[in-house]
Specification:
single chain; 3 helices; elongated
């Protein structure tokens, strides 16, 4: 153990390492997660004649990431294309919010002819493979729903476009948007105002608690006074326990409150921009 700690007893060095081990592993785990999702490339082989225009679409509103490959393609009329759906989880599965799920719907002249049902290929990666027949232009909408009560996010959604010619791909208005639902659910959106003193602020999970209500903050925001653009983490960081707020919230899912506008102590006005 010579050289470790500059004269500190070996037992002290070992104790410090053991104490820091969970932190070190957390940093390594997050680094591997970021590296994995940043290097994802399309690997699915395609039938002859399929032209890939956009290799993949990525959504990351919360902590997890939804990826659909390809994001846009030209497929000869009447032929099929292979589509892969991935979810990259920040935390290993199973997690406490295990009722997460992936749904999809199609519109226009496309139909799903095969669905493998999806599976976890490792503790942090979900994969689902669809085979889609393209009779005329259409879209595939994929939605990943976080588990009920999960503080990391609500949903991720992307819309892939499938056309039968390059001309149609250049003119996406040719796609008929009348939905034909295969696996989808609709959410009725309502709004409510929450007024009171802030009890708890969680900057990591990006939510605040007013009395006994948790209010989640997601997306990009705007300081209405300075016109400064803020991240959701920055918005939460501006709010302190004891502050009085008025929050305009969208009620979604199983009653979760998602902030759309927050007025802090009657002076600071924060508005969600996307």
């Amino acid at each position: 153990m010579r050289g470790l700690g500059k004269g500190l007893p070996a037992v002290v060095v070992i104790a410090v390492f053991v104490a820091l081990f969970p932190v070190i592993m957390g940093v390594i785990d997050n680094a591997l997660y970021e590296a994995k999702i940043q290097t994802t490339t399309i690997t699915t082989s395609q039938p002859s004649g399929v032209q890939i225009l956009v290799p993949q679409l990525v959504s990351q509103q919360g902590a997890d990431r939804l990826v659909v490959e390809p994001g846009k393609a030209v497929v000869p009329a009447g032929e099929t294309i292979n589509v892969k759906i991935y979810v990259y989880f920040k935390h290993s599965q199973p997690c406490p919010y295990s009722d997460w799920h992936v749904e999809y719907s199609v519109s226009g002249g496309i139909e799903v002819v095969s669905d493998d049902g999806g599976k976890l290929v490792d503790p942090k990666t979900y994969e689902r493979i669809l085979i889609i027949k393209v009779n005329s232009p259409g879209t595939l909408t994929v939605t990943y729903y976080y588990g009920t009560g999960c503080p990391e996010g609500t949903m991720e959604r992307v819309v892939a476009e499938l056309c039968t010619s390059a001309e149609q791909a250049d003119n996406t208005t040719a796609i008929t948007m009348t939905p034909t639902t295969t696996q989808a659910s609709t959410e009725e959106e309502t709004y409510t105002n929450i007024t009171g003193k802030v009890v708890t602020v969680n900057t990591e999970a990006r939510y605040i608690v007013v009395e006994n209500k948790s209010i989640y903050v997601r997306g990009t925001w705007l300081d209405a006074h300075t016109n400064k653009t803020l991240t959701d983490a920055e918005v939460v960081g501006l709010i302190k326990p004891g502050d009085t707020i008025i929050a305009v919230c969208k009620v979604i899912g199983s009653g979760r409150l998602m902030a759309e506008k927050i007025i802090v102590n009657g002076t600071l006005v924060l508005e969600k921009s996307e």
